[in-house]
TrEMBL record:
Residues 396-415 are annotated as: Disordered. It comes from the Bacteria. The keyword Transmembrane applies. InterPro entries: SCO6880-like (IPR049978). Residues 398-408 have a biased composition (Polar residues). It comes from Agromyces neolithicus. Keywords: Membrane, Transmembrane, Transmembrane helix. The chain crosses the membrane at residues 20-41, 48-67. This is Integral membrane protein.
Length: 500
């Protein structure tokens, strides 16, 4: 008998933030050294008070803008925290944290059910693929990006041999790596949307398919069998979204759309080879239905009943806004009678992972009305990857030698940085990634506590570090939707300069 194939393990994780030596970055140490030199020169020239004032100002500036408080490799500056609170308070006072649609809203008559925030800038581009299947590309006008969302029903892995699982994992890694070879790709996301659903729509569908000409005994047997089904069944939808830069694809949006349409078969084939079933590019109606269910999970069974009755879902994505959306509170957003919150990964697991590490996080959970996990991929070109690798190697070395006694984590970082650089020389690609989880629950205190406890449990079981999104919760909620919203493309210039 052949031996069981070992699992493929991943874990070459390295932080990509600015290099810190002690409490300060290189930029911070530069300011401090300049401040001290100015103080020394002022003392020599007999103006010591001015020198002390400069040093004090430099230290206060660094304390607010450069020193990071919080977890290693994931802390945030005081300026970032205070700025976030002030921005939220200002938006609250201006009434920007509440959004409503419908006849009694302040929206223009032609956009009474428009999407909120930056999503209102989305333009739909319809087309037909080679098989005659309709699809819709999304043009994000605010950031000049164009995205395509592929829906799929992945193959189950419970009964697959380990060799097949390893093959699928390798092929998915190959698809992620291929993103770096297309200079126009700005990023990609994979979203797993899951929930427990009532068996009622399924039972009605099965009953409707019973032929009147079938024997009475057979009809009765099927009716009895449907009553033995579990009261709930899992409902899981998987989406893969690829986002391209319009200027890198063509001179016009139309040229860019044509280029994307030509690239779609390759990405569908790549996901198919990775065990994603038979991916199809979503059209506007599929995306609109997904949005409406995200705002109110109970709509899923309603849509199922409508399909059973022969009523097609005709709403388009740009008209699929929420009835209302309120992000005035910390952490929790309220929309269409339910509530949601989002947690984001700050540091990946400090260990090797396998295909089962995130299994529980991706699976439906009973304390949530709906759960949406989105993994973001940001591919780097070969030149960018080399620069990042060199920076990581220098950063790991500086951080390790700046301590009096090196820890095992410091040694591990140095080895990983050297390994990464060696692999890039051999032709490997580099892709940065992150992860966000949005959960929806009933809008009451009991459901909130239960959802918080279960979400913490699921995240801690994966050994990753995380934090809840306390403000900017609407942006976080909509970033986890499979619409091609890449958070780094909306990052402010100030946040980029400060390394946030």
């Amino acid at each position: 008998m052949s031996e069981k194939a070992p699992r493929i393990k991943f874990g070459n994780w390295l932080p990509t933030g600015p290099t810190y030596v002690g409490p300060l970055s290189y930029f911070g140490w530069g300011i401090l050294v300049v401040g001290i030199l100015v103080a020394v020169m002022s003392s020599i020239l007999g103006n010591l008070p001015f020198g002390l004032l400069i040093v004090s100002a430099a230290m206060i500036f660094l304390l607010f803008f450069n020193v990071r408080f919080g977890e290693l490799d994931a802390g945030r500056s005081l300026a970032s925290r205070i700025g976030e609170r002030m921005n939220h308070a200002g938006r609250n006072m201006a009434g920007e944290t509440a959004y409503a649609t419908g006849l009694f809203s302040e929206l223009p008559s032609e956009n009474l059910t428009a999407l909120p925030g930056a999503l209102v800038q989305i333009e739909e581009l319809d087309g037909l693929d080679g098989t005659g299947h309709p699809y819709t590309l999304l043009h994000h006008r605010a950031v000049r990006l164009i995205s395509a969302t592929m829906t799929s029903v992945p193959d189950g892995t419970e009964l697959l041999p380990q060799e097949m699982k390893n093959t699928q994992v390798s092929r998915f890694g190959a698809w992620v790596a291929s993103l770096s070879r297309d200079s126009a790709v700005a990023g990609a996301t994979v979203t797993i949307d899951s929930a427990y659903s009532s068996k009622a729509p399924l039972v009605r569908k099965l009953h409707s398919e019973i032929s009147p000409a079938a024997p009475i005994v057979a009809q009765r047997a099927l009716l009895e069998a449907t009553q033995l089904l579990p009261n709930r069944h899992t409902e899981t939808h998987t989406y893969g979204t690829v986002v391209w830069s319009v200027p890198k694809l063509g001179e016009s949006v139309e040229e860019a759309a044509a280029e994307v349409a030509a690239k779609l078969p390759y990405h569908r084939q790549g996901l198919y080879a990775a065990g994603a079933g038979l991916p199809m590019t979503a059209d506007s109606h599929e995306l609109a239905r997904m949005m409406r269910v995200a705002y109110q999970p109970m709509r899923s069974s309603e849509h199922g009943s409508d399909e059973l009755a022969g009523h097609d879902f005709t709403m388009r994505l740009v008209d699929a806004g929420p009835d209302y959306f309120d992000e005035s509170q910390r952490r929790v957003v309220f929309h269409d009678g339910v509530a949601s919150m989002t947690a984001m990964m700050t540091i990946p697991p400090r260990m090797h992972i396998t295909e089962d590490t995130f299994k529980e996080l991706f699976a439906p959970a009973d304390k949530f009305l709906r759960k949406r996990v989105t993994v973001f991929y940001r591919p780097l070109s070969s030149a960018e990857a080399q620069r990042v690798a060199q920076k990581l190697r220098k950063s790991a070395g500086v951080q390790a030698t700046s301590k009096g006694q090196q820890s095992s984590f410091d040694e591990h970082k140095k080895k990983l940085a050297q390994k990464t650089e060696s692999e890039l020389v051999e032709g490997a690609s580099m892709t940065t990634f992150s992860l966000m989880v949005t959960v929806t629950f009933e809008a009451n205190e009991k459901a909130y506590r239960a959802a918080t406890t279960q979400l913490k449990s699921l995240l801690e079981a994966t050994n990753l570090s995380y934090r809840f999104v306390e403000r900017g919760t609407s942006a976080a909620f909509h970033s986890t939707l499979p619409l091609g919203v890449l958070p780094w493309m909306y990052k402010s210039t100030f946040a980029t300069l400060m390394g946030e």
